[in-house]
């Protein structure tokens, strides 16, 4: 068959038009409603805890994912006032938000507030607070694994028999989950002797814990291991250990990490030898993504779990890691979690 130049031209135009018709629906479906008009989507982050590097990094992750989606984010910070946090959920409802992230808090104060949001037709996810609601996905750092990784390292470093100090505050969901693992380890290893349990969330947390740790170390100078499964706790313990001149006699194991934590772990002779952590910025991103899935009519699951990484003082020194950016670059498993990540979801970490 012979084609003239005109016929070929018409054929090319027809194919181009057909291609547009075929691809148009796919383009329209790249982001499901309501994210096809993201500027109309309003979400709120209602915070209980905000002091410390972890929570600043978490907030930066929430902001980064919200920006990548193009949604309107409102941040409401109760600064550890449980009643105010519950009121702030009502404020978010009054603002007309379509979705709420509840970040930390107490079950007794947040349970009813979360239910009011659900009753108002608002999608809700909760990070590290159990609001006892089947309709609300729980965002978790896999706190039991955080504690397990740190404690396994403590066993590896110190054997199965040692005298321990333990920092804990009951009633905070992630700390309660980490406490379950601590109890399991004490039951498994009968040689672990818990000499003292202490802890506070009074601001500034690290300094308040340091005040308690000074008394504990005075009464128990033969403590060999401090399990402080929250980095602000570990900072406080390290202050007291340094002041007591016990840095070479005590090893500190913790959860969570930040740039200032890395510096503290890398100080010459530092007692802080290991931590297990997720990237708090990634956890913030996952919190927004899970909420976005709910808003798009998708199911992120009842528990949305971000896997942790063990980070030792040796890892940091051997790789000359000085900050969170270098940690993400040199330990790629820490940089991104492929969690709550459907194909249409924008990745704020993409270059």
Describe the structure.
This protein is α/β, with parallel strands linked by helices and 351 residues long. It has helices spanning 5-28, 53-69, 82-94, 107-119, 143-158, 173-188, 205-219, 231-243, 259-266, 280-295, 313-318, 324-330; strands at residues 42-47, 72-77, 99-103, 123-127, 138-140, 162-167, 192-198, 225-228, 251-255, 272-277, 303-305, 309-312. α8 (231-243) links the parallel β8 and β9 (251-255). α3 runs parallel beside α4.
CATH topology of the largest domain: Rossmann fold
Highest-level CATH class of the largest domain: Alpha Beta
Sequence stretches where pLDDT stays below 50 over 5 or more residues? 1-29
Count of individual domains: 2
Biggest sheet statistics:
6 strands, parallel
> What does the overall shape look like?
globular
CATH architecture of the largest domain: 3-Layer(aba) Sandwich
Count of DSSP strands: 12
Lateral arrangement of strands in the main beta sheet = 2-1-3-4-5-11
Q: Strand share of the residues?
A: 15-25%
Structural class by SSE content: alpha/beta
Q: Overall mean pLDDT score? A: 91
What value does the Rg take, in angstroms?
24 Å
Order of helices and strands: HEHEHEHEEHEHEHEHEHEHEEHH
CATH superfamily annotation of the largest domain: Response regulator
- The number of helical elements comes to 12
């Amino acid at each position: 068959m012979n084609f003239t130049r005109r016929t070929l031209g018409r054929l090319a135009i027809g194919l181009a038009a057909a291609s547009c018709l075929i691809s148009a629906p796919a383009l329209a479906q790249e982001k499901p409603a309501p994210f096809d008009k993201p500027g109309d989507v309003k979400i709120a982050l209602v915070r209980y805890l905000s002091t410390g590097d972890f929570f600043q990094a978490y907030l930066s992750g929430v902001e980064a994912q919200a920006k990548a989606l193009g949604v309107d984010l409102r941040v409401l910070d109760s600064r550890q006032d449980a009643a105010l946090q519950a009121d702030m959920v009502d404020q978010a409802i009054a603002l007309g938000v379509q979705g709420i992230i509840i970040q930390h808090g107490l079950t007794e104060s947040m349970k009813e507030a979360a239910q009011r949001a659900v009753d108002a037709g608002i999608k809700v996810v909760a990070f590290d607070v159990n609001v006892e609601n089947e309709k609300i996905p729980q965002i978790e750092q896999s706190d039991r694994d955080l504690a397990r990784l740190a404690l396994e390292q403590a066993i590896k470093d110190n054997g199965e028999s040692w005298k321990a100090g333990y920092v804990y505050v009951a009633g905070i969901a992630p700390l309660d989950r980490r406490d379950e693992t601590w109890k399991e380890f004490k039951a498994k290893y009968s040689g672990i002797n818990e000499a003292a349990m202490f802890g506070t969330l009074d601001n500034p947390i690290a300094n308040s814990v340091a005040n308690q740790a000074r008394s504990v170390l005075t009464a128990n100078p033969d403590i060999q291991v401090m399990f402080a499964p929250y980095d602000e706790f570990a900072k406080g313990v390290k202050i007291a250990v340094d002041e007591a001149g016990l840095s070479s006699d005590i090893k500190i194991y913790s959860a969570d990490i930040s740039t200032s934590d890395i510096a503290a772990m890398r100080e010459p002779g530092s007692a802080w030898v290991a931590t297990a952590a997720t990237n708090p910025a990634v956890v913030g991103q996952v919190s927004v993504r899970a909420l976005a899935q709910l808003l798009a009519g998708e199911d992120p699951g009842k528990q949305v779990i971000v896997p942790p990484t063990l980070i030792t003082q040796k890892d940091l020194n051997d790789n000359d890691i000085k900050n969170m950016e270098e940690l993400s670059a040199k330990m790629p498993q820490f940089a991104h979690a492929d969690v709550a990540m459907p194909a249409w979801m924008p990745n704020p970490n993409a270059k």
